[in-house]
């Protein structure tokens, strides 16, 4: 059995050096409820295609790390219950046991890099959780960005996190954090985090050149592009702040920790905003898929 299985369209695109955009699956299984999760996953793939790139949704199915899912695999994953959430620590274990699991940002980056894919679009990366000074809860996504050469397009770290601490850790790890088209760091559901982003770029070509230059220097690791949610879909920061505080409080009260924390917070915020957070989440992922495809096209024009 081969470790990695590329779908036919993905294998062909990679072989030709054509643009491919990796997509994660934890957002499907743990980030959104059925059936909106499937609808989102299909729309994201179509958005990537409309922009002239090939989508590669990544997941472990019956022990095989699949890069590019067909329609039936995507639907089965979106409907499945009790699917594992796989990060760097558990990816190999799940595969060796013939299991099925969804890949987080960290595990998706690992698979993408192995498959020869250099661009990845998602919603929000994991980061430093509030209260991390006590819980030590820092997402493995940050370490992965430091060591795996993939450009990750997100809408900022999820606003449920401690954003100043997340930026500090990314700086320590040597990860370029690039706000797209503005000076402020975006905060997932909101366009602005109230923090200046370390770097700013205004075009996909610039972002592609920076990735190529980093590789030419022999520096390991990727880049994080933070793309603000479209104005029409944004939930302003002051509206969201009390909701996030409440969700974090509820998590503490119920002793939610580890892998369960991020899915719990997203679900709680969905309930507290009566679904508004989900509608925004879908729009920002589509927006990131669009930019991801444009970056992938630019990267595909540069020498490897
Ligand atoms: N972005 C979303 N929804 C999600 C996630 C990101 O809009 O569900 C997932 C990603 O897979 C990310 C993970 O890698 O949450 C972070 O989890 P943790 O904080 O446990 O590392
Ligand atoms: Mn964690």
């Amino acid at each position: 059995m081969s470790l990695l299985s590329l779908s036919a369209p993905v294998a062909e695109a990679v072989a030709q050096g054509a643009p491919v955009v990796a997509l994660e699956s934890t957002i499907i299984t743990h980030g959104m409820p059925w059936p909106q999760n499937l609808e989102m996953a299909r729309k994201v793939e179509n958005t990537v295609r409309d922009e002239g790139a090939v989508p590669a949704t990544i997941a472990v199915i019956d022990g095989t790390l699949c890069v590019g899912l067909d329609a039936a695999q995507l639907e089965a994953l979106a409907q499945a219950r009790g699917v594992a959430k796989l990060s760097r620590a558990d990816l190999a274990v799940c595969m060796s046991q013939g299991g099925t699991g969804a890949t987080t940002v960290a595990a998706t980056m690992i698979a993408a890099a192995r498959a020869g894919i250099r661009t990845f679009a998602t919603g929000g990366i994991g980061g430093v959780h509030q209260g991390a000074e006590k819980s030590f809860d820092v997402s493995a996504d940050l370490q992965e960005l430091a060591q795996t050469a993939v450009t990750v397009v997100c809408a900022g770290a999820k606003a449920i996190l401690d954003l100043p601490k997340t930026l500090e850790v990314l700086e320590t790890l040597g990860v370029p954090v690039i706000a797209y088209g503005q000076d402020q760091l975006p905060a997932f559901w909101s366009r602005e985090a109230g923090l200046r982003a370390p770097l700013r770029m205004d075009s996909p070509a610039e972002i592609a050149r920076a990735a190529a230059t980093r590789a030419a220097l022999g520096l390991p690791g990727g880049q994080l592009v933070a793309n603000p949610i479209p104005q029409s879909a944004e939930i302003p920061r002051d509206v969201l702040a009390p909701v996030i505080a409440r969700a974090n409080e509820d998590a503490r009260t119920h002793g939610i920790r580890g892998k369960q924390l991020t899915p719990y917070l997203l679900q709680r915020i969905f309930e507290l905003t009566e679904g508004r957070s989900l509608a925004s989440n879908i729009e920002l992922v589509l927006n990131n898929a669009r930019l991801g495809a444009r970056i992938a096209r630019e990267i595909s024009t540069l020498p490897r």
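Residues 4-301 form a domain with the Indigoidine synthase fold fold (CATH 3.40.1790.10). The chain is about 50% helix and 15% strand.
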